[in-house]
Amino acid sequence: MDRNKKIIVIGAGWAGLGATYHLVKQGFDVTLLEASSHAGGLVAGWKTAQGKSVEAGIHGFWYPYRNIFHLVKELNLEPFTAFTQSNQYSPYGLETTSPIFQNQPYLPSPLGTFVYPQFHRLPLCDRISALPLMYAVIDFDNSEEAWRRYDKITARELFRQYGVSSRLYHESFEPMLLVGLFAPGEQCSAAAALGMLYYFILAHQPDFDVVWCRGTVGEKIFQPWIEEIEKLGGKVVTNQRVTDILVDERGLATGVVCSDNVYEADSIISGVSVSGIKKIVSSSKSLNRYQQFRNLNNLGGIDVLAVRLWFDKKVNIPQPSNACFGFDRTTGWTFFDLNALHDQYQGEKGSVVEVDFYHANQFLSMTDDAIVERVHQYLKTCLPEFAMAEIIDSSVIRIPQGVTHFAPGSYQHLLKVQTAIPNLFMSGDWIITNHGSWSQEKAYVTGLEAANKVIEYFHQGKQADIIPVQKDEPHIEIARIINKNLRQVTEGFFPNFSL
């Protein structure tokens, strides 16, 4: 390089850190800006005034997270637990126990994920009613055409059209949506539902297997990652909330504005959430000139509530990770045994439990005491032994619009990595990508994709090697080829009746 190109990355989450790390390794002059006081934002976690670790929800790392697992290996980190089983509860008690699927005899997709979970109340006839849904799984091939086609209807309507029984929907599929897409089925895009279910559950038998961070993500992954970035020459600056992206008369981004500070740039990567980029657009005269950025106001977020409880005695919690449904009609929640998952709590005399609520709109206005009392009651319903334990400390964290809402019709407003501004690139778990991943893995992958766009733009550096998702099994590949050919033939004879 005749001089190191200046790259500004906005947002120090999985996407921003991924882009920064790769570009620094390629010799670029990279500054990573984070709005909060600690890199990693909500995902990273922080310390309370009493020195206790808390975070805005517990994040799992699923079997298909091949790029994240490769990253932590490269950083010589060992942040994860072993793979864990999980339980699912309703107000009636234990509903389902999911095994570690990779330890079971391998069955063709998706039989294993239907056969091996122990359903304690769901009859076989209801489970069989899901079989016709396999056509939608085959038809939805993650292409742009498929996304646009299935994004027009709700997930609930999709399951109804394919004959899924009411009981199977309410006791199996909707709970997955409530803790996977964070909203009830009538508020979720069918395309997003199919993409999420396929990636995490249906594509390959072990995909639902999950490990957990043995502490906060900030302590175990982000902090050593940032230290490596700074060792390589990258700069990470906190308490820098971006309010504008400067664009010159040529239509090129030239820098970002953070209050009284201006950071000049040859290229910019955004790695912030939907709510974060909407705030930047609302205050930016430059971005407001572009339709694609104004359209982001059609997107929304979902409220999250994270509660951490310290008890005076140990409660026997059969599985470290647990999902719950049926306690509130539109809200899913999870609870975790941190004594089993986090290193720092293994020696505690009492149980430490994390409880996370998604689509938690109705809870955010409640007082902390009322929330803690409600959570304790829910835990006692799942495991009566909690009635014998007293709460001695608690932490309540409210995150309005904390996660992306993939509502019906939202796909048309999402952005791709490449924007209308040639040297401004987007990354994050809400960005359109052909990779096929979801959640944290998707955010990290799109960060690498944005870094690759910068390298392509300047014709300098080596592009990041992105590990693709595992290929479809042969019978799924064949079924998709046949379905695609039939669809092309029928389109030549019949008019298109979709609206």
Give me the secondary-structure topology.
Blueprint: E1 6-10, H1 14-25, E2 29-33, H2 41-44, E3 46-47, E4 53-54, E5 60-62, H3 66-74, E6 86-90, E7 93-98, H4 111-115, E8 118-119, H5 124-128, H6 134-139, H7 144-150, H8 155-161, H9 166-180, H10 190-202, E9 210-212, H11 217-231, E10 235-237, E11 244-247, E12 253-258, E13 261-264, E14 267-270, H12 274-283, H13 291-294, E15 300-311, E16 321-328, E17 331-337, H14 338-341, E18 352-358, H15 368-382, E19 391-405, E20 424-426, H16 439-458, H17 474-493
Parallel strand pairs: 1-2, 1-14, 2-10, 6-16, 14-20
Antiparallel strand pairs: 3-4, 5-9, 6-7, 7-8, 11-12, 12-13, 15-18, 15-19, 16-17, 17-18
Helix pairs in contact: 1-11, 1-16, 8-10
